[in-house]
Amino acid sequence: MNNYIPIDNWQLALAAALILINIALSLGLRLGLARKLGIAALRMVVQLLLVGYVLGWIFALDNPLWVLLLVFMMSAIAGNASVNRTRRRFPSIYWNSFVSILAASGFVTGLLVEGIIHIHPWYDPQYVIPLLGMVLGNALTGTSLALDRLMEDLVSRRSQIESLLALGATRWEAANETLKEALRTGMIPTINSMMVLGLVSLPGMMTGQMLAGVNPTNAVRYQIIIYFTLAAGTALACISVILLAFQVLFSPEHQLRLERLRKIDA
Predict the structure, then answer these.
(1) Do 147 and 240 contact (CB within 8 A), yes or no?
(2) CB atoms < 10 A from the CB of 45, how many?
(3) How far, in whole angstroms, is CA 256 from its chain's centroid?
(4) 112: closest CA among 198, 231, 207?
(5) Which of 43, 113, 136, 179 could form an SS bridge with 78, CB 3.0 to 4.6 Å?
(6) Cβ atoms of 147 and 237 closer than 8 Å
């Protein structure tokens, strides 16, 4: 039974008016966020409307080439956004982030589509694009946190790491704890979300399915599958980006190369 209730333009306008609460609080408390809130709200609406029209067009085409092109574009945007949240950069960081996010997200989404849900054809944009988008969003957050923690820890622990290297430790032995802490940091948001899922929050996909009239039990099954996929994708993306950064910031001669880092002004 489908109980989907369509939303018209007037209802959208009423919902958009809710942002005035945030703006009023910002002005009243002098938080200085009113302009940013307005710009963020406008960008969100424009971006989502644009995406809606683009996806509608791609859904109608039902062509794997356009789906793959959109996959690469989404991954490139996610990789760029991941790096833009870090406070330090090195020369190949954007490429490393893009490759890590694309490979990890593409692998787990492909496994989900082909090996678990059995979607036919495999490139069905109605399934592939939303599922990939959720995986990319989590991978973006994880890689950003992992990269930032890794670079900051290498800078703060420079003396300790270089002492270990001088005493004969390999680059892997000297950086082992830093690498593990970076991976833990990247995984924290996903783990925290999983801990309270269903008790504190109802995730977007599950809520959307129930609003569209799907049986709650079926919606829960989908959400369980999705979260296991998100966790795997985030872990793989974080490990990949950490290892690629490790190769850049440590030379094959077991030297710490922090001169390759540059700090970004806020």
Answers:
(1) no
(2) 13
(3) 29
(4) 231
(5) 136
(6) no
